[in-house]
Specification:
- The protein has 606 residues and is of the alpha/beta class.
- The two termini are 40 Å apart.
- The radius of gyration is 25 Å and the shape is globular.
- It has three domains: 204 residues, Rossmann fold; 241 residues, ANL, N-terminal domain (Rossmann fold, 3-Layer(aba) Sandwich); 117 residues, ANL, C-terminal domain (GMP Synthetase, Chain A, domain 3, 2-Layer Sandwich).
- The strands form five sheets. A 13-stranded mixed sheet has the order 2-1-11-10-12-13-14-15-16-21-20-18-17, with helices on both faces. Strands 7-6-5-3-4-8-9-19 form an eight-stranded mixed sheet.
- The longest helix has 17 residues.
- It is 32% helix and 23% strand.
Length: 606
């Protein structure tokens, strides 16, 4: 137990406020709008702020702000025409496309709760999140994978969404015709299956009231945690309008510094709607501030690179591996004698999953060398806080990423109180590592159908992140890894797996490292997955021998690396570009140990 009773607690001192601009408190103290996210903020802003700008651009189709309002109104009438009422739930299984946004806004407008599951979650996990839903909206290309779930008698309607509906012609005609033929079997499954356009024709003539008042006890949207466990479980996180409206207040206070969310600029979003950090930072806040949002459901390296070079967005947000892939392309073009113009960078955010300090320094240097006035802005957010918790946005500051073995994810967002805590719930002073926790008016309402977990995470008024971090005396948060990913030595010493991985990354021949537990709970083994540098100075056996010998010097007695596995390229990522830890955690064969000058095969499947 740590004795810090005579020290000022960071959550009380809040030194991070020195990064805020004058006037932030006045914005935070403003009363919240009376309406919901849509009726109280977004729709009024669409009429006034940036009123002549496009709301969305989607595969060449420019969707105006009046058109967005019209589509949301039509969608809201469709929902009400189906017999849905305030407090009812609907499911959305779809990537990022205009129809997804129409449904999110229409549900908010009508007081209907929209549930957006993690699309990589297991069927069992998905089944627990939809017990009360009578209507499901599903991307038609995804329906075959969900047909057993959607066959449930509880679903009165399954509305099929097509990614081609809102594309510009002739692309929408060409791809739409092919998609129509491809999904004919899906449309004919049963009478409850209906296309989005036919649902509007059948139910969109509803002429009653479609505007619900804001109710602070109402769960407006249910998001999914960005990652899943090895068993494909993803937490369902309920957030109310009051919390979401409070996040807008925080964003406006943040925006006083250098005005990154600026009218007549562009946001580029590829993140699926269930990831609320992306939804808020790349869609909701930009629309509210008069920006144009470029939507693309193809979250992969190729299309991210293409979009960055073509759209030249002021704001975007992707994980560290996609940013690294983008800068590898920048470096490639530079070496070919081509100058890449990155002067449009305003808020290029790295979130979801970061990178090592050396990689971030390399990306920053390339950004500055190609005309950017800012480096990559690292941040940290949780669905439990409805988006951002910390952000390293210090305009004009050239950041030193070498001061820690982890990158800074910045200082707490306006309106957030953040602290670092030990296992007994004592707040730690600056420079000590513990669990990152926060208090915020943007706090979630609950985990869907999981009151026990809700109590564990927010029962004492603090959101327990489950992530290990430390705070510098300047108020910057340095993030290390998940609290539960550790082993305990026979003497009781706790060893975090991310510490082992970070130590291995310091080796000159190791580009990246992932340390996990393999095997079942009764017989777990510490294993290391490695990616070596392309031009490693030693061969694989020599690298493993060196890493293995070094591990014995810093690991306590009774803890050892039970197997190594070398991979090429980059680690496999999930469809939201986080390292697929579940995939690697399920690998039980193909490991080796360097012994007596040879690679000794090791498997854990027995």
């Amino acid at each position: 137990m740590t004795d810090n009773t005579n020290q000022m607690k960071p959550s009380q001192e809040q030194v991070w406020k020195k990064y805020y601009s004058e006037g932030f408190q006045e914005i935070l103290d403003q009363p919240l709008p009376e309406g919901t996210i849509w009726s109280g903020l977004i729709e009024p802003a669409l009429h006034t702020t940036g009123a002549t700008n496009d709301a969305f651009v989607y595969f060449g189709n420019h969707i105006s702000r009046p058109k967005l309002i019209e589509e949301v109104d039509t969608c809201a009438r469709m929902l009400k025409g189906m017999g849905l009422k305030e407090g009812d739930e609907i499911m959305l299984f779809a990537p990022l496309m205009p129809e997804s946004m129409y449904l999110v806004f229409a549900a908010d407008k009508t007081g209907i709760t929209i549930i957006m599951p993690n699309l990589s979650a297991s069927h069992e996990s998905l089944g627990h999140s939809m017990d009360k839903s009578r209507v499901a909206f599903v991307f038609d290309g995804m329906e075959p994978m969900l047909s057993d779930i959607l066959a449930r008698t509880q679903f009165e309607h399954v509305v099929l969404l097509s990614v081609t509906r809102s594309m510009a012609v002739p692309l929408s005609w060409m791809l739409g015709a092919a998609n129509w033929l491809k999904t004919k079997k899906v449309r004919n499954r049963s009478a409850k299956y209906i296309t989005y356009d036919n649902a509007i024709k059948r139910y969109g003539s509803y002429n009653g009231n479609i505007v619900a008042p804001r109710r602070d006890d109402h769960v407006a949207m249910i998001f999914a945690s960005g990652g899943t466990t090895a068993k494909g479980t993803a937490k369902q996180i309920g957030v109310g309008d009051k919390a979401m409206l409070s996040m807008f207040r925080s964003a406006l206070a943040f925006n006083l510094t250098n005005n990154p969310f600026c009218e007549n600029t562009r946001s580029f979003s590829l993140v699926p709607p269930f990831v609320c950090t992306g939804l808020f930072a790349l869609v909701l806040a930009p629309l509210y501030r008069g920006m144009t949002v470029y939507l693309d459901p193809r979250l992969d390296q190729k299309h991210f690179n293409e979009g960055m070079f073509k759209i030249r967005p002021q704001i975007t947000l992707v994980s560290g591996c996609l940013w690294a892939g983008f800068f590898r392309e920048v470096e490639k073009r530079n070496k070919a004698g081509k100058k890449v113009d990155l002067s449009y960078f305003t808020l290029p955010i790295m979130g979801g999953e970061g990178c090592i300090p050396e990689t971030l320094t390399w990306m920053d240097e390339l950004a500055y060398a190609n005309g950017a006035s800012v480096g990559i802005v690292s941040g940290y957010g949780m669905s439990e806080t409805f988006s951002v918790m910390t952000v390293d946005h210090r305009p004009g500051v050239r950041k030193d990423h070498s001061v820690k073995r982890a990158i800074s994810v910045g200082y707490p967002f306006p309106g957030f109180t953040v602290g670092i805590f030990d296992d007994e719930g004592n707040e730690l002073p600056y420079g000590q590592c513990g669990e990152l926790r926060c208090k915020t008016p943007t706090m979630m309402t609950c985990y869907l159908n999981n009151p026990e977990l809700t109590q564990q995470v927010i029962g004492d008024g603090w959101i327990h992140s489950g992530d290990m971090a430390e705070m510098s005396p300047d108020g910057l948060v340095y993030l290390y890894g998940r609290k539960h990913e550790h082993v305990v030595s026979p003497s009781g010493e706790r060893v975090y797996l991310f510490d082992i991985a970070n130590t291995m990354r310091q080796d000159r021949d190791v580009r990246d490292s992932l340390v996990l537990l393999a095997g079942d709970h009764a017989n777990q083994h510490v294993v290391a997955h490695l990616i070596l540098e392309e031009h490693a100075q030693a061969n694989a056996l020599q690298v493993l021998q060196r890493l293995d010998e070094e591990s014995r010097t810093y690991l306590p007695e009774g803890i050892a690396i039970s197997g190594y596995q070398i991979h090429t390229g980059i680690f496999k990522v999930s469809f939201i570009t986080k390292t697929d830890r579940g995939y690697y955690g399920n690998i039980l064969t193909g490991y080796c140990l360097p012994r007596n000058g040879e690679m000794k095969p090791v498997n854990f499947d027995n």
